[in-house]
Amino acid sequence: MVTETYDPLWSPPGGGFWKGKWQDTGPEFDVINPDTGRVIARVRDCTPEEAESAVNDLVTEQKVTNWALWERREVLSRSSRLLDERSDIASRLISAESGCTIREARGEVARAVETLDLYARMSMELTGGMLPFEDSRRGGGRVGWTSAEPLGVVAAITPFNCPLNMAVHKVAPALVAGNCVALKPSGLAPVAHSSAIPGSRW
């Protein structure tokens, strides 16, 4: 397909984001507006080796980092506020790379803002609880305790439709629960999802 002159809406600094920075060693590819054929962004892909390196780094981080629940809540709350403030550029990116109308894109961004805020507030539910054992023969005088613990590294794969909101629906609950997340967006819509990664770009 022959595209028009490269006039990007967005120029990400690299491909994958791990070890606290954007990695830019993978091959470049153009993100094309399906309606107009225009190149709206140029991004980098990740190689299988890079993906493995990113996951291994997350496994290590999960073991050594103590990310307090209040900090997770604050990150998601701040992400919600920042996305709301920058909803115009996010909406234009979604519309351009997915081919949806700007009205639909704005609705998606609004839903993503609400979703980030919702999961920030869900942190209050991660409290654990007490289970009385009195209803068993050997449970007299005993109680059990439960606590909410992270699983570890979560893989999140998102489609091209609703690229931002689908990413938020996977990333936000995983993060508030204390997990690390490896996010793999669709190659057809890889740009808008990056605003769903708290702290990575905004």
Q: How does this structure look, described?
A:
The chain has 202 residues and is an alpha+beta fold. The chain has a domain at 48-126 and 146-196: Aldehyde Dehydrogenase, Chain A, domain 1. It has five helices and eight strands; from the N terminus they run E-E-E-E-H-H-H-H-E-E-E-H-E. It has helices at 48-64, 69-85, 87-98, 102-121, 163-176, and strands at 17-18, 21-22, 28-32, 39-44, 129-132, 143-146, 153-157, 180-184. The strands form four sheets. It has a two-stranded antiparallel ribbon with strand order 1-2. Strands 3-4 form a two-stranded antiparallel sheet. A hairpin with a 2-residue loop joins strand 1 and strand 2. Helix 2 (69-85) packs antiparallel against helix 4 (102-121), helix 3 (87-98) crosses helix 4 (102-121) and helix 4 packs parallel to helix 5 (163-176). It starts with 16 loop residues before the first strand and ends in an 18-residue tail after the last strand.
Strand order within the widest beta sheet: 1-2
Average per-residue pLDDT, rounded, comes to 83
Rounded to the nearest angstrom, the radius of gyration is 20 Å
Through-space gap between termini: 32 Å
State the helicity in percent bands: 25-40%
Task: List unreliable stretches of 5+ residues.
Answer: 1-6, 198-202
State the oligomer.
Answer: single chain
- The structure class reads alpha+beta
The CATH architecture of the domain at 48-126 and 146-196 would be 3-Layer(aba) Sandwich
Largest beta-sheet characterization: 2 strands, antiparallel
Instruction: Give a count of the beta strands, DSSP E runs of length 2 or more.
Output: 8
**What characteristic shape results from the CA principal axes?**
elongated
Order of helices and strands: EEEEHHHHEEEHE
Instruction: Provide the β-strand percentage band.
Output: 15-25%
What's the level 1 CATH class of the domain at 48-126 and 146-196?
Alpha Beta
